[in-house]
Amino acid sequence: MLRRVDLxxxxxxxxxxxxxxxxxxxxxSARCGISQPRISRAERGLADTMPVAxxxxxxxxxxxxxxxxxxxxxxxxxxxxxxxHARIVEYVVGRLRVLGWEIVVEYTFNHFGERGSVxxxxxxxxxxxxxxxxxxxxxxxxxxxLSTFARKLRIVPPLLAxxxxxxxxxxxxxxxxxxxxxxxxxxxxxxxxxEVSYPGRARDAQAWLRNxxxxxxxxxxxxxxxxxxxxxxxxxxxxxxxxxx
Length: 245
Description:
Layout: H1 4-20, H2 25-32, H3 36-43, H4 52-61, H5 77-98, E1 102-111, E2 114-124, E3 129-135, H6 142-164, E4 170-178, H7 181-189, H8 191-197, H9 202-210, E5 216-222, H10 224-228, E6 241-243
Parallel strand pairs: 1-6, 3-4, 4-5
Antiparallel strand pairs: 1-2, 2-3
Helix pairs in contact: 2-4
């Protein structure tokens, strides 16, 4: 649950933006489907009894991005998240190496001020196939995730063609995440979005890695039991695995 000080600040933001847009609470209610009394409670910082989904609907109706963060044991939470991320990367890299892909881990770029990184970039020289992989321990802000990946898909392939001579005839994009109940619930709640943006699933991705004949857009859930078996050692560096900037 959010601290009261956070709720008060969110309420002030809601009220300020609503008035800036010249909307009444009743008009905002019609726009977002939340009752006027609940909107009033949210604006007064009393949203602690409201479902978080209702608060998010109000925020979306006002074009406000609502972010909820979490802390654990003085900031050690990032170590757990990084560990989960590293295990997924290790698992995927291992699968790619067996199938003969050249791999770059943590490919970062700065192209005319547009900065970013791709968790894994893979190249299949025999099939001239390029694969961009984003690893997510949790599926959270879908809009940001999809828009950011689309930007990387626009910027990274031309950079790799210039830097490494990788000029693909086919490009794949893949999101890999643990197949937890929480992640699967997010996909189920946004089924239409994923059906349009990333229609493929784990079976499609694994088949494509063996035979990248046409473009791929897939979401790959890795079983938590599989990730639990992956050693937490750093990604092994060999002739086919490297880190690049």
